[in-house]
Design brief:
heterodimer; A: about 260 residues; mainly alpha; two-stranded antiparallel sheet; 2 strands; about 0% strand; B: about 270 residues; 13 helices; about 75% helix
Chain lengths: ~260, ~270
């Protein structure tokens, strides 16, 4: 309970901070629209040639793009800024300031930054998703929307875990920014459903980097492709990943020596 | 002339030595840039296969060749970013370079050229691994190879010139990121980076002729991968030369006007 209150307070501060820089909103809107336009152009180029790709039609892929944009917005507003700050603090030794506070350090490290304007991606992604669903004739029922929401949350948790594991690597290896760059490149693979990739890449995007769970699985839920088994699999994997992340974080903290703060 | 030659050789040597110290960081940087072409390659190979083996004249094998060469040309396209110009001008960093008895652009050109040497060496093993996985269909002639080698360096110069022009806008206004974003989006579509230009609608292909983007990106790749006639090969090289020459003239003229507006704040 205390934790929620703390997270909420940080969220409030983050939002207030963002309101100081309102011009950034316009730049963010422009960026979102450029990304949307290039995504649509890519999609159109493909569908000028074929009617479906790996069993996914044009409207299905539009739905994937919507989810991709939404999840990307969540990552860039709430997950990535925190992790980047954490990376710097581990390197510089200023993590001390968190560790001396009387709250769980992992929680504190994960809620301090919030980029409100990045949520334009979430809004535009939702609009794209709505357009896609109407093109598909609104074949969504209670179960598929529940499946969508739950897998989206699980996907976000898995991406968070993945980021925290990478960031924790900074406890041992000092320079990890390049690895973080790698994630951004790989996340772009989520624009397309992972089914179209060759096997080795598909497994990588499912279990090494949870792009499949963050984008393809929620989109599958909405387009009626998700089975109960995969949903349970996602749930189990989320739990396992969250536990492993916690363990790695603890090990990392023990390794932290707060060199120079 | 000798003065420039000496400057370029020593600056490039410094840059090679400097970058060679961080092979791992440079590798991660390159691997991070691999995801993009691999995604395009896989998507378009899937399209080609569904169409019975080829799309816009490209088979999965030649698409693989296109996007593997793409990774090298992408490296050659790295020049001093316009965001760096923004930083340099806003923070007054330019003051230092202005004190030297040589145009500050030479330093950028030489530094990145040296870095390219390291990048090309590091790229070779990556290209071999990619070739083993994706089995590219690539059989260039000797002439293709020679022109390609010239074309990638010309591509680097075109990109240096255009990015410098873009960066110099910062002399007039410091709110430039919107302009930069639009520029990069146009580049993505019109250069052959997103897809080979032959997969684009006709009017886009025709429009691409008049922008610098394809000469700095798509053209060098097509030299090696496509079946261009000798005539077309040299027309492309000519276009590259035109862009570099007039671009450089333009940069130096704008520079003369722009530098009067520069008021160093610190640095």
């Amino acid at each position: 309970m205390q934790g929620f209150k703390l997270a909420f307070n940080y969220l409030r501060i983050g939002i207030m901070n963002e309101f100081q820089y309102r011009a950034n909103l316009y730049i963010q809107i422009l960026q979102t629209f450029i990304a949307l336009a290039t995504g649509l152009i890519g999609l159109n180029l493909v569908f000028n040639q074929v009617n479906e790709l790996g069993g996914w039609g044009k409207a299905d892929l539009l739905a994937v793009m919507g989810v991709f944009t939404i999840t990307g917005g969540i990552i860039r507003s709430a997950i990535q800024p925190n992790m980047e700050r954490l990376m710097d603090e581990i390197r510089e030794g200023t993590l001390d300031y968190i560790l001396t506070k009387p709250a769980d350090a992992q929680l504190l490290a994960s809620v301090r930054e919030y980029r409100l304007w990045q949520n334009t991606d979430v809004i535009i992604g939702t609009i794209v998703l709505i357009v896609a669903m109407s093109q598909l004739g609104w074949r969504v029922d209670f179960w598929s929307s529940l499946g969508f929401t739950s897998t989206l949350v699980m996907g976000a948790i898995m991406v968070y875990c993945f980021w925290l594991v990478i960031t924790s690597a900074a406890f041992w290896f000092v320079r990890v920014h390049e690895i973080a760059n790698l994630f951004e490149g790989l996340y772009a693979a989520g624009r397309w459903p992972v089914d179209i990739y060759p096997n080795w890449l598909r497994y990588g995007l499912t279990f090494l980097v949870p792009v499949a769970f963050a984008v393809t699985v929620p989109a599958s839920a909405l387009t009626g492709r998700l089975s109960l088994q995969s949903w349970l699999g996602a749930l189990a994997l989320t739990a396992v990943l969250a536990t492993i992340t916690r363990v790695i974080w603890r090990l990392g903290l023990r390794n932290y020596s707060g060199a120079s703060a | 002339m000798k003065r420039y030659f000496d400057f370029y050789t020593s600056m490039m040597r410094v840059s090679v030595l400097e970058q060679w110290q961080y092979p791992i960081a440079n590798y991660f940087y390159m691997i991070g840039m691999l995801a993009e072409p691999v995604i395009y390659m896989v998507v378009w190979s899937a399209v080609a296969e569904q169409q019975g083996g080829s799309v816009g004249g490209y088979t999965p094998g030649s698409l693989a060749a296109y996007y593997i060469v793409w990774t090298l040309v992408r490296q050659m396209n790295i020049a001093f970013t316009p965001y760096g110009w923004e930083w340099r001008i806003r923070q007054g960093r330019l003051s230092m370079s202005l004190l030297r008895p040589m145009h500050p652009l030479h330093e950028d050109v030489a530094f990145f050229a040296g870095w390219k040497v390291v990048m090309i060496i590091l790229w070779i093993p990556l290209a071999l691994v990619l070739s083993l996985i994706f089995k590219p269909d690539l059989n260039p002639t000797l002439l293709d190879g020679v022109i390609f080698f010239v074309a990638i360096w010309m591509a680097y110069l075109i990109r240096t010139v255009t990015l410098s022009l873009l960066g110099m806008v910062t002399f007039w206004t410091t709110r430039v990121s919107a302009l930069f974003e639009l520029y990069f989006a146009a580049e993505l579509i019109l250069s052959g980076r997103l897809v080979p230009l032959s997969l684009m609608p006709d009017w886009v292909q025709r429009a691409a002729w008049f922008f610098p983007f394809r000469w700095a990106f798509g053209y060098p790749i097509e030299v090696l991968v496509g079946n261009m006639s000798v005539n077309d090969l040299f027309i492309g090289l000519g276009m590259q030369f035109v862009w570099v020459f007039f671009g450089a003239v333009f940069v130096s003229q704008i520079w003369k006007i722009a530098i009067r507006r520069f008021s160093a704040v610190g640095g």
